[in-house]
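Propose amino acids for all 157 sites.
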């Protein structure tokens, strides 16, 4: 069962989106240097359709996107929640952050607008660094992945 520990509105996870970031526990990745190692244990509140509806009711028009942060222990459940959000909350975009280097075969791109993959490797930096190993993809109308990682890199003035 997926569980979440906390959530909050963020502006840096997905470009041009006001995102409700939901931090999911029981992360199996255990990236060295992880800034969220409190998510390594199986703790928190069940993350199900009822919880999603509660978030949408609470945050309403303040958000444009829901990003599921983690869930690598149950990618099929992540896929199911994304499908639910797309079907029942049409006005919201859906994102997922996986700490894996590849997208699970249990994930169907059509249920997502954004997918971020890659473990955090401190020596390579996060998405703001051109040296990062992490990638953010936007899912196109054809459900193909378009790498938009460079949207995080500072443009010369």
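Proposal:
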């Amino acid at each position: 069962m997926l569980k979440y520990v906390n959530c909050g509105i963020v502006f840096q996870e997905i470009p041009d989106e006001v995102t409700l970031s939901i931090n999911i526990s029981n992360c199996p990745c255990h990236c060295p240097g992880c800034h969220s190692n409190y998510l390594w244990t199986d703790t928190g509140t069940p993350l199900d359709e009822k919880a999603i509806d509660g978030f949408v009711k609470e945050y309403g028009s303040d958000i444009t996107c829901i990003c599921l942060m983690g869930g690598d222990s149950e990618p099929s459940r992540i896929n199911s929640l994304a499908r639910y959000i797309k079907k029942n909350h049409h006005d919201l975009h859906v994102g997922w952050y996986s700490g894996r280097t590849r997208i699970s075969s249990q994930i169907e791109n059509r249920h997502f607008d954004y997918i971020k993959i890659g473990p955090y490797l401190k020596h390579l930096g996060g998405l703001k660094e051109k040296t990062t190993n992490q990638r953010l993809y936007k899912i196109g109308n054809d459900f193909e992945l378009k790498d938009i990682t460079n949207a995080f890199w500072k443009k010369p003035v």
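The helical segments are 49-59, 75-88. The chain has a mean pLDDT of 95.
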